[in-house]
Amino acid sequence: MSEWVLPDGVLRDAPSYTPRPAELADLELLLSGAYAPLTGFLAEDDVASVLRRGALVDGTAWPVPVTLAVPAEVAERLDPGHAMRRLLILTDPEGAPVAAVEATELSEVRGGWFRVAGPVRRVGAPEHGAFRSLRLDPAETRELLPEGRILGVIATRPLHRPQLAQIGNAARTIGAHLLIFVPVAGPTPEGLAPEVLVRTVLAARERLPSATVVAVPLASRGDEVRDGLLRARVAANYGATHLLSTGVAVGGGIRIVVPRDLAYDNRDGQWRPMDDIPPRRRRTAMSQGEIDDLLDRGSPLPEWHTPPAVAEELRRARPPRHNRGLVLLFTGLSGAGKSTIARGVGDALAESGERTVTTLDGDVVRRMLSAGLGFSAEDRDRNIRRIGFVAAEVARHGGIALCAPIAPYARTRAEVRAMVRAVGGDFVLVHVATPLEVCEERDRKGLYAKARAGQVPAFTGVTDPYEVPTDADLTLDTSKLTVDEAVDTVLDHLVAGGWLDAID
């Protein structure tokens, strides 16, 4: 899609908005033509039709709604009925304009959020970051492909020998050139960063028949059937005639090739159809859990299962736990003992010198990182996200971050967990579950008394809720444990998990 030169003053006067990651991925696919015949975000009647019967209102088959939602403060500046107030500028996370959507419809979808429908046009050159040379659009890709059959492969995970054997077998069977799509819209199901996934695929490339590799911002919507149908449409737009898939996809001018079940033959070291190998000579593919366990312990991946070049990329991305970045988030009521335990753990690690440690205490962060924020739900979330961002950066570089905010909301704690995992770090949620009455008895800052007197608005446990974690990795109650016992419990957990050697 060619770049649109906007009229004078539009970039200055029109509202702008940075879509969320999944919406940015959809936007790029719309602009590149990968979502053809779509040219913009869907209107309400098309959304309803897609959800009901898998087709747009005009009967065109389409598997998933492609939508854009904006907050009320952006929506209130748009007017689909006004020629000069219908343009919305969409920006990348750095604030650079990427596209303009001409709002033809505006509808409220939930409290404070509105769906914007309308065609999109590119207004700025895309900045793709790593592996730009692989971020080809469908037209550029089709120019590179040879005549004849093209077998599309969606590489959502690293390619080990079982997958390489399946892909090679399928390509040779139908006499096809390979077109490998590497999704780069977010972490893999195992938590690998997109650039790591690309490196693992490139590391395996020499073990495949002739192949073209492209990086595509395909994001999973959590529905296997709809995801499969959407991938088939995208693959066809890129030029694939066939798609390797265990699912069933129809339409889009593409045929499905189902991979064969293969096993490793101990006699000659080849991957063959499973039924052709006697059970006594057969090895099946390792589970993801087995692979993760070997990487966590620093043990080599067996060469019969994983090519050395792929294993090396995985080892670099997922070092042994005793070298891997780690974030411990201590959550609990004010006065529960979070900061005291975190300091004790930090002191023990500092004494051992085994790991680099950064402590992000709730009160200190409020002064140094989140000054000016209040205690509304929005500001509490913003504070925790800031802590999560800094902690994730610590983990990215192999350090341990000890975080001790109240963190009352489950959704925000989950966001921090995702931030950390997205950079290859590990996350441990410690619920300091000291009862409210005990916390209130301690009340050395007098905060509970002020809250009961109405002097502190939105105080967690009194006038604001605390959402008890259902996903805590460790639970401590300092009404039943001394501080030293609680610290030892955390350290024992880190030793048992492989993040630390035993501390004397």
TrEMBL record:
Its EC number is 2.7.1.25. Pfam families: APS_kinase, ATP-sulfurylase, PUA_2. It is an enzyme of class 2 (transferase). Residues 324-477 form the APS kinase domain. One of its GO terms (cellular component) is cytoplasm. One of its GO terms (biological process) is sulfate assimilation via adenylyl sulfate reduction. Residues 18-106 form the ATP-sulfurylase PUA-like domain. Pathway: Sulfur metabolism; hydrogen sulfide biosynthesis; sulfite from sulfate: step 2/3. Keywords: ATP-binding, Kinase, Nucleotide-binding, Nucleotidyltransferase, Phosphoprotein, Transferase. GO terms for molecular function: adenylylsulfate kinase activity; ATP binding; sulfate adenylyltransferase (ATP) activity. CDD domains: APSK (cd02027). ATP binds at G332, L333, S334, G335, A336, G337, K338, S339. It comes from the Bacteria. Coiled coil: none annotated. It catalyses: adenosine 5'-phosphosulfate + ATP = 3'-phosphoadenylyl sulfate + ADP + H(+). Residues 133-244 form the Sulphate adenylyltransferase catalytic domain. HAMAP family: Adenylyl_sulf_kinase. Catalyzes the synthesis of activated sulfate. Belongs to the APS kinase family. This is Adenylyl-sulfate kinase. It comes from Actinocatenispora rupis.
